[in-house]
Amino acid sequence: MMAHSKPSLKNDYNHCQNIIKHHSKSFYYAFSTLPEKDADAVYAIYAFCRTADDAIDHAKNMETRIVNLERLEKELDNFLSGNVPKAPMWRALSDVMARYDIDPSMLYTQLDGQRMDIRFKQPEAIDDLINYSNHVAGSVGRLLLPILSNDLTGPRRQNAEKLGVAMQITNILRDIGEDNREHGRIYIPKSVLKKHGYTEEQLASGEINKNFRAMWEDLAGTAEQLYDTAREEITYYKPEARLPLLLSLSIYREILNEVRHNEYDCFSKRNSVSLAKKIKIREAEKIYIKTLEDK
Predict the structure, then answer these.
(1) Do residues 237 and 148 make contact, with C-beta atoms less than 8 angstroms apart?
(2) DSSP string covering 54-66
(3) pLDDT tens-digit map of 108-146
(4) Which key words tag this protein in UniProt (predicted)?
(5) 97 CB contacts (<8 Å, ≥6 apart)?
(6) Which of 9, 21, 59, 244 has the most CB atoms around it within 10 Å of its CB?
(7) Whole-Å CA distances, 230 to 49, 159, 174, 242
(8) What gap in Å lies between CA 242 and CA 114, rounded to an integer?
(9) Assign residue 55 a region: left if phi > 0, alpha if psi is -120 to 50, beta otherwise?
């Protein structure tokens, strides 16, 4: 009789690595350049956040979404009490928590962000959008910070959150059509729509006009200011983490330029950054880091 093999931590991390490779080629391209132990930790954090996101977006109805999130929250409760669920993501995450000073409250913050999507309400103002983005993406920045930096002071935590918000706003601007078409969600704040004279009906029909472009650029400008702030903080990160972090930042920022290049079509096109552009960004960031080191 063939003996059952015991699960190995390496296989658990491979499972998490496959999740990020499948769902986010940009993040994988950036963070796979980290030292192996740090890269594995990023993969495990990503796998948790993806699991939380899928619990909502892959569910067919409200009841299933609620059940899925409650189940995941119960697993998290057990996990943090020392009863690690027998699943690759949880075993890998347990190893990460043992090796890094991860703030466990951010895991709950991520779930709270997903809960906002269950009973979704269109943001009224930009502050509402930033609050939502802080939950679903700022929390990711906070979770990754101890892996990428030895400085966990308040300013660094705030900066990590802001970078997450910039990336979430980028996601929203890229996925305007998909979010409305597949999930019935409009993340653009009502105040921003009103400011630029663009209606929810126009958004639902995929109308791209000067008002839409002005509205889109308004939010893109907010994201780009946050990217600039994060970039200024790069010297506070571990030397080996600076290139991966700049790659993730700059590749994500380039998504905004892809939308512009495609004449603001966020309705029928899936705007993404090509491998050739990623390689070009990588070479530029390597030069930038070298100039920092030479100062």
Answers:
(1) yes
(2) HHHHT-SSHHHHH
(3) 999 999 999 998 999 999 999 999 999 999 999 999 999
(4) Carotenoid biosynthesis, Transferase
(5) 104
(6) 244
(7) 21, 6, 20, 11
(8) 29
(9) alpha
Long-range contact pairs involving 33-39 (C-beta distance under 8 Å, separation at least 24):
33/243, 33/244, 33/247, 34/240, 34/241, 34/244, 35/240, 37/99, 38/147, 38/148, 38/240, 38/241
pTM: 0.93
Block mean pLDDT (10 aa), the chain, length 295: 63 97 94 97 98 90 93 97 96 97 97 94 97 97 98 96 98 96 95 98 97 98 97 95 97 97 95 96 95 81
Fold classification of 10-119 is Farnesyl Diphosphate Synthase (1.10.600)
Q: Beta-carbon neighbour count of residue 195 at 10 Å?
A: 14
Residues of the chain with CATH 1.10.600.10: 10-119, 121-295
Q: Which two tokens stand for residue 216?
A: 């889109």
| Distance from C-alpha of 147 to C-alpha of 241, rounded to nearest angstrom | 9
Burial class (CB in 10 A: 0-12, 13-18, 19+), 188: buried
Q: What is the pLDDT of residues 21-67, one digit of tens each?
A: 999 999 999 999 999 999 999 999 999 999 999 999 888 899 999 99
121-295 — its CATH code?
Answer: 1.10.600.10
